[in-house]
Specification:
108 residues; 9 strands
Length: 108
């Protein structure tokens, strides 16, 4: 995890330490700096991160696999390269349609 206060942070491969945990959910914090935190979540196929909310604005980007996000009355399927932004405190749920990795950026 990078917690440096340097003006530049470079992470060569977000996926390197994020190996999907069998049968569930795994996570690794890859960046924790003032105003922003980046976590890579790993999902086993079929795992559901039940409805919850976060106190910060969220950016969700699928690194691989396919994830179904239900938020604000809408269902969005995230595949590699897709990006979804959620307002702070918006209730949401994430379901892995297949083994997947999700980059979660918390801002604020």
């Amino acid at each position: 995890m990078d917690t440096s206060a340097a003006p530049i942070t470079f992470i060569p491969d977000l996926r390197a330490g994020a190996v999907p945990a069998p049968g569930g959910l795994g996570h690794s914090t890859v960046l924790n700096a003032p105003g922003v935190r980046v976590v890579v979540l790993t999902f086993a196929a079929g795992h559901v991160l039940k409805e919850h909310r976060a106190p910060k604005t969220l950016l969700m980007q699928a690194l691989d696999g396919c994830l179904r996000v239900t938020a604000g009355g809408k269902v969005t399927d995230l595949v590699a390269g897709a990006l979804l932004r959620l307002d702070a405190s918006l209730t949401h749920e994430v379901e892995a349609l297949e083994e997947s990795r999700l980059m979660l950026t918390m801002i604020g």
